Amino acid sequence: MRHKLPLHLLLFLLTLVTTTFAGAEWRYGKSFFYGLEGFIWPPAITQEEIMGGLLFSASFLGFLTAHEFGHYFTARFYRVRVTLPYYIPIWLGVTFGIGTMGAFIRIKERIFSRKEFFDIGIAGPLAGFVVALGLLGYGFTHLPPLEYLFEIHPEYRVWGANYAAHVYFRADDLAIGKNLLFLLFEKLVADPALLPSRYEITHYPFLFAGFLSLFFTALNLLPIGQLDGGHILYGMMGYKRFNRLSPMLYTIFIFYAGLGLLSLEVNMEEDWWLWAGYALYLIIVFRPLFPEPKQGLLLATGVFGTQLLVQVIWPEVQGYNGWLVFGLVLSRALGVFHPPSPNEEPLSRGRIILGWFALVVFILCFSPAPFIVD
């Protein structure tokens, strides 16, 4: 492990840089190299603004680091060979991103028991959740005056505190979605006079980092396959019961994600490719769930038809199509099923209670539609 330590440090430092750049872009609402007139040189963001992005990068990397080291130290406790976290930097400079695709550790040997899967799986989300609570607590109790927002958007000054009723009419306006924990902080902790619109959360580094922390916590706690939530539920249920339930939960996830994607008011001569592409997508993601291809085809047909029926009966029903990308990753890369462990001994009562607590955390953090572009 020691001979790879420089690589881990390099990836961390690169990710610190890229998330700082991304944090500056979100905080001040402008891209490094791209503006209304196209490519910009020299960069539109000043050195002082870049340093302002550190609040976001330190906050979000604090969450990622807590999450990954929760897994790491628990694995080391059980003497499971594991790598230090690999951070994944990514930044383009011409489009908004968060500067990273996250981080991961590699477990380099088989895990022995359901208890170990459970403990290693739950440690990361719970450690990250504590950091997320701290970020949101600080962010909502230290909201700056409205003048902070008016310095970023001077055109809002004419409307004062009532700006939200007048300014969101562009087709690319981005708002963060809703989850129970964010709503609780808004209602119980924040000063209503200082609370920004959901379209402006990205300008508030602690709130934005806190929301992303909740988003990634919920994503990891999805009780499917070999996600952290899958490890937890596998530990609670065992190999056979979990691998019967996980494909059902995955099917529900895809069903919700695809709702509203296909409009019934379309010109089939022009839009046939969207229908055909989505049907092919369903066949691809459901194929790994069954030993026989025709079983996956039948499930894909059933989901496709039921979604269309829902659109006929309740045309206003809308899922979140952004989940479809993650659904593909789950099916074809991460897997919907969980491998067995040599020791299938049931968990203790205390761990079962902790597993139910993790479910509560998932419900508090989960946003059905986390990012909304009008």
Automatic annotation (TrEMBL):
Using the UniProt record, give the first listed, main subcellular location.
membrane
Q: Name one GO molecular function term.
A: peptidase activity
Q: Which residues cross the membrane?
A: 86-105, 117-140, 204-224, 245-266, 272-290, 297-314, 352-373
> Is Disulfide bond included in the keywords of this UniProt record?
no
CDD domains of this UniProt entry? S2P-M50_like_2
Name the keywords, alphabetized. Answer: Hydrolase, Membrane, Protease, Transit peptide, Transmembrane, Transmembrane helix
Task: State its location(s).
Answer: Membrane
Q: Where is the Peptidase M50 domain?
A: 56-241
GO annotations of cellular component type: membrane
Q: Name one GO biological process term.
A: proteolysis
- InterPro entries from the UniProt entry: EGY1-like, Peptidase_M50
Hydrolase among the record's keywords? Answer: yes
User: Which cofactors, by name?
Assistant: Zn(2+)
Q: How does it sit in the membrane?
A: Multi-pass membrane protein
Hey, which family's this protein in? Belongs to the peptidase M50B family.
Its protein name is Peptidase M50
Q: What's the source species for this entry? A: Rufibacter tibetensis
